[in-house]
Amino acid sequence: MNAHALSVLEFSRSVDMVAERAHSALGAERVREALPTSDRGWIELEHSRVWAMRALVDGDARWKPQHIADIRPSIARLRVTGASLGAADLLKVLTFLRASRLTAESLADPALPAVSIALVRAEVGALVVAPKEEKTIESAIDDNGEVRDDASPLLRRIRREMRGAQGELVKLLERIMARLEAHHQAPDMSVTVRNGRFVIPVRREARVSIGGIVHDSSSTGATLFVEPPAAVEAGNRIRELESDELREIDRILSELTDFVRPQREPMASALVAMVALDSLYARARFAIELGCGVVEFNEPGAGFTILRGRHPLLVAQGIDVVPFDLTLDAAERTLLISGPNTGGKTVLLKSLGLFAAMAQAGIPVPVSPESRLAIFDDVYADIGDEQSISSSLSTFSAHLKNLAEVLRSATPESLVLIDELGSGTDPVEGAALGGAILESLTARGSLSVATTHLGALKELAIDVSGVVNASLQFDSIALAPTYRLIKGIPGRSYGLSIARRLKLPEDVLSRAEARLPTGERDVNALLAELEAREQRLGASEREAAGIADDVRVRARRVAERELAVRDKERTAERDARREARRLLLDAR
How many angstroms separate the Cα of 316 from the Cα of each of 16, 32, 360? Predict the structure, then answer.
């Protein structure tokens, strides 16, 4: 799918929103790598897997993935013969092996839906379970990524001797400090370490009388950190022990590395599986939180049906979005949406483009079940002000450049989205050019959705088969959009209605109305009447739906009461029979 369309549709922002729901950084990274494809088999399978994960996440067991340690550098090093892992790397390997095992165990829970487990069988089968490796690393590396004292008998002996030697050296240095004259003592008299050697702080003027080796000085130069002559041999012994310690640690790490090296490829496969599961988890969480429904997919030639569609970025921000319903059948190739500014036309265009891009990247979209989406070979979007100063393009020229690319590249399997078609130039020429563009796209079979303010373009639906008018409803009394999509009726500009509500002089409005062509006035009057009828019909439908809901609620309550009465009758009958048997037995 072309990068320009993905950019103007804010595909990356939408994917970021999904990635935030991953359980680990690697899972989020995998989600962000998602790109749309036109492979229908992959798309349908991936959506099935997301819904399978949703059943795991939202079911009684409430499955959740483990944190995934990034062991990619460790795997790469394990593939190099003779290379060793550091203690921190081995701790990451241990963390990963433990997470892989726990994931395998949790997905083996018989309480989880078998159908869901079947759809992630490949990932489950790739998980690595290596208890011996876990135990071996755990016995040698602590939770801070350090080699344990008891990782080997030699290391235990070296560290015990080193701690003893350090303790004796500190005591020696403290005795030396205690013998210093007051004018030779630094403000903070305590044993410290500089350049790996144990030293004491003294004033600079005491340097000659104390002797020894200066390893450092304070920022002012007034204090020197000195290793006294009496402490040099003890310091040397500690350095020897430190070297012995490092050699033993290197030997232990090399041995541990060789022990886990055979698991490098199983771990690599398990890492891919764990990341895939987290990616599915993120998309499932997104579907649950945004109320995404299961959709069907078909070829572009069959059109599409969107029920209660909502722009995902607006929903995620907590904005109260008015959902839209839209169906284009096989014979309808172009939808021309007209109406006033701020009515939601651009949001609708971006929603349609995002639904295609996200769904074809394996991401659920916020629509109701039974929606039907087409799988496009590409999406083209000319949306927004794309004026370019660097290339000396005006807004109109920039739009034409985009539209030229659309006309060169769009196929019968493409989705084309055009915002404010024909704007930026003379209205007559703009309408003529816009009409020709839509006629060309309709003739080749591309599925196109365009918005416009130009009244002349609204007549295209009469002249060209496959073009359908639509509008986004506007409340001319409240001067506010309702965001309800009405298919089959072109929109009005509402310019004069808004002007009248805003108290422009009536004589000016009368002259403006007189300047309108007679046909335009008649069309506006007819559209106003059609909108009024549609609003009355919508209100009647909503009232009927409300009555139906009320009837259903009342019927359910009556049924519940009947069940309660029957239960009471059965209970009373059982009690009566029990009492009768008791009386009969007593009489005998």
Answer: 11, 17, 20
